[in-house]
Design goal:
Keywords: Cell membrane, Membrane, Transmembrane, Transmembrane helix, Transport. GO terms for molecular function: transmembrane transporter activity. This is Iron ABC transporter permease. InterPro entries: ABC_BtuC-like, ABC_transptr_permease_BtuC. This protein has 355 residues and is mostly helical. It has one domain: Orthogonal Bundle (ABC transporter involved in vitamin B12 uptake, BtuC). Helices cover 74% and strands 1% of the residues. It has 14 helices and 2 strands, in the order H-H-H-H-H-E-E-H-H-H-H-H-H-H-H-H. It has a two-stranded antiparallel ribbon with strand order 1-2.
Length: 355
């Protein structure tokens, strides 16, 4: 059995465990057999309605608490599903961004893509735009993230190369401008809108609904499929731009396509959950250290790893403090910040210094 298969199987098992533990844990503890029984009942209703009774599963237990069924299907399951989708989207976006920039420091949060998306989403909160219905926040987050990505990309390119220092400094500048724009929007908003923006910026999956899942699901799935489709061009691009062009890769087209895909994935996550940083930095690096640089396996395992990491972080955010919830963006930053320092020093040593 190959290493990719083993790692994928381990990540799938970890994700199943994280999802089930998240579903059972909360202010109302629901036993695992009752959670599985509720899922089996829903599955049986679906396949029974389609006339496929031979696919029905045995129901070993049913929820006993009068509020357990509603708690599972109105609060926990939508939150768990949204957590998995957001973690997978952010990690896959990070893997592609590092590949297209050929830089291990590239990540949607660090280079300002998340900030650009946040500005778009905050503008929707303050100005009450609804031109695209429930997709308005996602559309404006996409536009903001796309603009930020192109600014960073255009500024960090010089002489056909992407400069590491310029990339990071441009990301800092874009984050600063995005922070200032969000501060201005906070100033312009009403008291209720200010509170909404402040808590939203901290990153949270509290209040997740099935409507949010319906919006994020197609964007995340389409984005991850597009990331996998970009795997071979990114592998060739890792050899160098000139070599990739000799092998038939249209480098600029691949870069622009990858930037749009990253903006879609990031905006889908940011629009619903706020800014959750470092998932797209930490997970692809860990997967690359284990599996190597081949992007097809890297993107898929990063998506699984991002889902596992964010599910664990969300579980910790919900349960670390009784009757309160920690901002999940704070928890991911506590893990990702030190990792970024280590990565920066490692990259500096391997480059022999920045100057």
């Amino acid at each position: 059995m190959s290493r990719v298969t083993l790692v994928t199987a381990a990540l799938v098992a970890a994700l199943v465990v994280a999802v089930l533990v998240s579903a059972t844990t909360g202010q109302l503890q629901i036993p695992l057999d009752e959670v599985l029984g509720s899922l089996a009942q829903a599955w049986n209703r679906a396949v029974g309605g389609a006339g496929l009774h031979w696919l029905e599963l045995p129901v070993l237990a049913t929820p006993q608490h009068p509020a357990a069924e509603a708690t599972l299907w109105l609060i926990r399951f939508p939150r768990v599903v949204l957590t998995v989708l957001v973690g997978a989207a952010l990690a896959a976006a990070g893997a592609v961004m590092q590949g297209v920039f050929r830089n291990p420091l590239a990540e949607p949060g660090i280079v300002g893509v998340s900030s650009g998306a946040a500005v778009g989403a905050c503008a929707v909160i303050v100005f009450g735009w609804s031109f695209a219905g429930p997709l308005t926040a996602a559309v404006m987050a996409f536009v903001g993230g796309l603009i930020a990505t192109f600014v960073v990309y255009g500024s960090s390119r010089a002489g056909g190369r992407t400069e590491v220092v310029t990339l990071v400094l441009t990301g800092i500048a874009v984050n600063a401008v995005g922070g200032a724009a969000i501060a201005l929007l906070t100033f312009l908003g009403t008291t209720q809108q200010r509170e909404q923006i402040v808590f939203w910026q901290l990153g949270s999956l509290n209040g997740s609904r099935w409507q949010d899942v319906v919006i994020v699901l197609p964007l995340a799935v389409a984005g991850i499929v597009a990331c996998v489709a970009l795997a071979r061009p990114l592998d060739l691009l890792a050899l160098g731009e000139r070599q990739a062009e000799h092998l038939g890769v249209r480098v600029e087209r691949v870069r622009i396509t990858a930037i749009v895909v990253v903006a879609v994935l990031t905006s889908a996550a940011v629009a619903m959950c706020g800014i959750i940083g470092f998932v797209g930095l930490v997970v692809p690096h860990l997967m690359r250290m284990v599996l190597g640089p081949a992007h097809r396996a890297l993107v898929l395992t990063s998506a699984l790893g991002g889902a596992v990491l964010l599910s664990a972080a969300d579980l910790l955010a919900r349960t670390a403090v009784p009757y309160a919830e920690l901002p999940i963006g704070m928890l991911t930053a506590l893990v990702g910040g030190p990792f970024f320092f280590w990565l920066l020093r490692r990259a500096r040593r391997s480059a022999g210094g920045w100057a």
